[in-house]
Amino acid sequence: MPFNLPAPFASAADVPDAVWAAIRSAARAGDDLSIAVAKPWRDLFAPLCRPDFVLGQLGQSLDGRIATPAGHSHYINGPKAIVHLHRLRALADAVVVGIGTAIADDPMLTVRHVEGKNPARIVIDPTGRLPAAAKSLTPDGTRRCILTKANHQLDVADDIEIIPIRVGDQGKFDPVDLIAALNGLGFRRILVEGGAATLSAFLAAGCLDRLHLVVAPLIIGSGQIGLALPPIEKLDAAIRPPTGIYQLGSDVLFDCALSQS
Ligand SMILES: NC(=O)c1ccc[n+]([C@@H]2O[C@H](COP(=O)([O-])OP(=O)(O)OC[C@H]3O[C@@H](n4cnc5c(N)ncnc54)[C@H](OP(=O)(O)O)[C@@H]3O)[C@@H](O)[C@H]2O)c1
Asked: CB of 223 closer than 6 A to ligand 1?
């Protein structure tokens, strides 16, 4: 049944070609102030024209789930939200996923639905579980990197960059170290595309400048939840970021500004 929602929020779904060209041009200049487009696109995309950002994105159901118990997540969000995700990829230097997502979804992580350049593809894979045939490793001229434990030998093609990361006190990589490693590779605009564990770790560490949370009008009722952070006792301690709200077809995008930048 088609959704026939009223439009209480600005629709960011359909970006005219000329507007998208202006956004990409401002992003190339690394200057959010040079973005010469009208609202709502200006508000939504200007922060992503800056030379540095770490942006998280997650698509979830009304009940806050990102996949069924079997790990099926294609597609929670509608086609307009998928196009939006490709715009985010096109504005990023690098797109990051955890190994859980790389195995469950085998994503290509390319820009296919909009004009733009593919970002470098980064997989956080501490113990070398990524299959050599993973689509994210496809040799298409794009840089591909695996962030893994120091001294871990991976059996992958020579042109894949293996970046050793120190394991932190909790037995995990500190997202601060992951960002420093990505910056060291020349990636300043970083899109963390999931899954839940990866994104939650970045959020808990205060490492996201923004979060695009896209809520789709479906109730899954079971399966994997999205963000999970260390427990808080009182709501005073909840994160309450300034948030822009946009309609993406039948989905609603919450653009959360988590940092001052
Ligand atoms: N709805 C959406 O927008 C969306 C987006 C992406 C994915 N998904 C769904 O999410 C599910 C996968 O999510 P997930 O939470 O299970 O997995 P994930 O976040 O994709 O990957 C988690 C794994 O990546 C490694 N990792 C990530 N951050 C790390 C860190 N800071 N330090 C050390 N290792 C780190 C660990 O690998 P090891 O286990 O090897 O230690 C960890 O278990 C899939 O079902 C996928 O379909 C949904």
From this structure: no
